[in-house]
Amino acid sequence: MVYRILVITSEYLTQYMDDMLKEYSRDITCRIVEYRHFSEICTLYRAHEQWADGVLTTGIAVEAVLRREIKGALKPILSLNTDNETFYKIPLSLLIENRELDPDRIIFDVFLCTSPNASVMELIENNSVNDMVPDFHKWVDSAPLEELYHIEDRCIRRIQELWEDNKIDIVICRYSSIVERLKELEIPCIFAAATDEYTRQIVDHLIEKVKLEKITAHLPAVIFTAPAAGDENIWNEYQKLNVQKALMDFAREYDLKFMVQDKQNGLLVITEKAVVSYVTEAFQNSVLSEYLKKTVGSDVTVFYAIGHTIEEALENAEHARKASRDSGNSFLVDEEKRLKGPLDKGKTALTTDMVDPKLLAVAKQASLSTTVIHRLNRLLCFLDKREITSRELADHFCITVREANRILKHLETAGFASVELHKSDHLRGRPAKVYHIKWDDLSVPNKILR
What we know:
With 450 residues, the protein is of the alpha/beta class. The protein has 4 domains: 3-81 and 196-215, 3-Layer(aba) Sandwich (Rossmann fold), CATH 3.40.50; 84-191, no CATH class; 217-347, Alpha-Beta Plaits (2-Layer Sandwich); 358-437, Winged helix-like DNA-binding domain superfamily/Winged helix DNA-binding domain (Arc Repressor Mutant, subunit A). Helix content is 46%, strand content 19%. It is built from 18 helices and 17 strands. A 7-stranded mixed beta sheet has the order 9-10-8-11-12-13-14, with helices on both faces. 35% of the residues are buried.
């Protein structure tokens, strides 16, 4: 089978990509499209989305723009970045060729947004690529879309300022589209092209992702709708018919394959993974929840599950139901038994393994549910710290401070939390306890929207 790959790149790299991908002519057919400005990227993607099986971009910023702007599931996508070997090899080669070069006057364009100097000296003395690249990724994840649109212009301006102030001698570029602009300004630069071997690895990986996507797209999946937490446990006949009609209207509106079954505690939709991916915008947001709230006129809990068999999907749905019931938010358990959520607008969706022996042991010893421990684990990862107060926990879990105190006290009694210090946000009032969560090697979940 020949797979169709859309390549989104700058004019500078078009010929290189064309030459590299000719090696895969028996496995893939390519369309190479060029962007002149980051704001054009999504328009290019949309124009070729139906044709493509997968997408290859020539930079993480390009991928970030797509993930941020496209609502709904993206085709399998990978970015051709610069490998670590190149980041070390290029400055080393420059210094060997010209011993008079000052490492402090050689800068990386890609790190200008996260580092004041972004110099080779900084790389040598203070950081490593393994430190600087994650900082860049964090910036890309958090930067406003408008800022991403103009990152190349911002880099050009900063480089020009440094050049005019006689603070730099040469720029190592990763933004391919600024290379020609720097040459026009007569500012010495060199492009940090990935090695051919690394490029082949990325292309091979993308082909495998496309193959896997096609294999798993039709895995059995279920969507369950039930009364929201706090509502009556069971709908009356009129309410259930109203929700069922809304589900079928939703399926017709979006041309989806839905088979609805009436269950005692709600309505079960039997479908496939591709449909769930579509209605959750690639497992980021429960579009169906928003639709039902508007059409039915009351809150409805929606949760999702995928399995390798319909029996496994139904089993996973039980885990998703528990997470949704405890929080009131939408959750999903995928075919790898990973819990994803909350899938609600304005909330960051995180992923964690449902079956984590460490967290299961913590839950058992602390006499707490595994859902609570998983949610706390995800929250600490999201907050990027291990310290939390009862008030913070209550606010994020949407529970009372008393209930939050109970959870933290259980962890303290079991030896998984300790009171590190006291603090007060106000001059008056009783200081709040700050709990340090002490289980080792926290499972760090992956973000999904970028």
